[in-house]
Specification:
Blueprint lengths: L14 H8 L9 H4 L7 H9 L3 H9 L5 H7 L21 H14 L14 E5 L3 H12 L3 E5 L8 H4 L8 H13 L3 E3 L10 H7 L2 E4 L5 E2 L11 E3 H10 L9 E5 L3 H13 L3 E6 L10 H9 L3 E4 L1 E7 L2 E6 L5 E5 L2 E4 L3 E2 L9 E2 L2 E2 L11 E3 L10 H19 L4
Parallel strand pairs: 1-2, 1-4, 2-3, 4-17, 6-13, 7-8, 7-13, 8-9
Antiparallel strand pairs: 5-14, 10-11, 11-12, 15-16
Function: Involved in pyrimidine base degradation. Catalyzes physiologically the reduction of uracil to 5,6-dihydrouracil (DHU) by using NADH as a specific cosubstrate. It also catalyzes the reverse reaction and the reduction of thymine to 5,6-dihydrothymine (DHT).
InterPro entries: DPD_II, FAD/NAD-bd_sf, FAD/NAD-binding_dom, Helical_ferredxn
Organism: Vagococcus silagei
């Protein structure tokens, strides 16, 4: 195995370079960067704190709005949110907000700051099904409001896609462990290896807790009909989980074909190259002008010399060979590879959870369900499927439950 898979791809700011970057900020009065953050974190405020070397104040600004601040600093597509709103873009380039946030949260960890505090117990308890980013944020928000929180996780470790999906070079296990430990230290109780709907029923949870949050993600990779039963084919979700769970120590093909053009596909192709697969080809339905993957993730794949062919879709598959057609041109393409990995979307598995879904999302608007004591958050709720949006949803469902239960009232 090539150890590059376990190494962070991006270098961090030093004390000198962090000050240089913070001083580039224009200190806008209207702070468009802050208005563009889904989690309502205030980049303008924490950048001002950094300029005055008030790293504690900067960390407080981040944490009070985002319990997963260290994780978002590493994986948030800032180009779509805060950096897209940065006024500095009109001069040269946006402030590296994610990089500054990472420096501050690294400082927080090294100095063992404990910013979030558990609220005075209000006598009410909440069950959360799933320990992905939205469930973790909901837990942190509710604990600060005085609720007792128990999280039920089907796997051996908490974190959901943070743990089993995002590659190690983008999000080290140490950071995931740190964030989860902070929430456990706030008072969260996590029950592992327990699948709700199988090991326990929703009725069991409703009988024991004042409210239940279903915080499940899109954990199942989609399989196209033409690839069903093909032993050479694997979904991106499965591959990324295997690589992450084994820290990259997995059997590798001599060459690989990846189908898909989102961030998950970029994670797959980049992981394959970092692990030592020499020939990696990615075939994408979208053309480059309409690419779904973030510019950052696409650039990372291109830096690893991944071959990317845009504008094609699969029409037939047999064994190691896939036939593609171009969307606009009368052109056909055949590619043979030892391993074929599909990154064509993910599905929510909500069996026996007493909630109705349609196209992988709940039918009811917002976070409520037909059952007044059951709420939903995470990928199953409408909105972007990013960590920062998961944080937004987790905060909002916690606020809705607090309003429903009346807090201390």
């Amino acid at each position: 195995m090539d150890n590059k898979y376990l190494e962070e791809m991006e270098s961090s700011f030093s004390m000198l370079t962090i000050m240089e970057e913070a001083e580039r900020c224009l200190l806008c009065l209207d702070a468009p960067c802050s208005k563009a953050c889904p989690a309502d974190t205030d980049p303008a405020a924490f950048i001002r704190s950094v300029r005055f070397r008030n790293f504690k104040g900067a960390a407080e600004t981040i944490r009070e709005n985002n319990a997963l601040g260290s994780i978002c600093a590493m994986v948030c597509p800032t180009e779509k949110y805060c950096e897209m709103g940065c006024s500095r873009s009109e001069i040269d380039r946006p402030i590296n907000i994610g990089g500054i946030q990472k420096f501050v949260t690294d400082f927080e960890q090294k100095t063992e700051m404990e910013i979030l505090k558990k609220g005075e117990p209000n006598g009410k308890s909440i069950a959360i099904v799933g320990s992905g980013p939205s469930g973790l944020q909901a837990a942190a928000s509710l604990l600060q409001l005085g609720y007792a929180v128990t999280i039920f996780e089907k796997d051996e470790q908490a974190g959901g896609y943070l743990r089993y999906g995002i590659p190690e070079y983008r999000l080290p296990n140490a950071i995931v462990n740190y964030e989860i430990l902070r929430i456990v230290n706030l008072g969260a109780d996590i029950v592992y290896n327990t699948t709700i709907g199988k090991d326990m029923s929703m009725d069991d949870l409703k009988a024991k807790f004042d409210a239940v949050i279903v915080a499940i993600g899109a954990s199942k990779g989609k399989m196209l009909d033409m690839f069903e039963g093909n032993e050479n084919v694997e979904t991106a979700v499965s591959f990324l989980a295997r690589a992450r769970d084994n820290r990259g120590d997995i059997e590798l093909p001599k060459d690989a074909l990846v189908i898909g053009g989102g961030d998950v596909a970029m994670d797959v192709v980049t992981s394959l190259k970092l692990l030592g697969v020499k020939n990696v080809t990615d075939v994408v339905y979208e053309e480059f002008c309409e690419f779904k993957a973030s510019k950052k993730e696409l650039a990372g794949a291109q830096k690893q010399h991944v071959t990317i062919i845009d504008g094609y879709y699969p029409v037939a598959a047999e064994g190691h060979t896939v036939t593609f057609k171009h969307r606009h041109l009368n052109n056909e393409l055949k590619i043979e590879a030892e391993k074929i990995i599909l990154a064509v979307g993910q599905e929510v598995v909500a069996d026996n959870l007493n909630i109705e879904t349609e196209n992988n999302q709940v039918k009811t608007p917002g976070y409520k369900t037909a059952d007044k004591n059951i709420f939903v958050t995470g990928d199953i709720v409408h909105g972007d499927m990013t960590v920062v949006w998961a944080v937004k949803k987790g905060k909002e469902v916690a606020a809705e439950i607090h309003d429903f239960l009346g807090g201390n009232n």
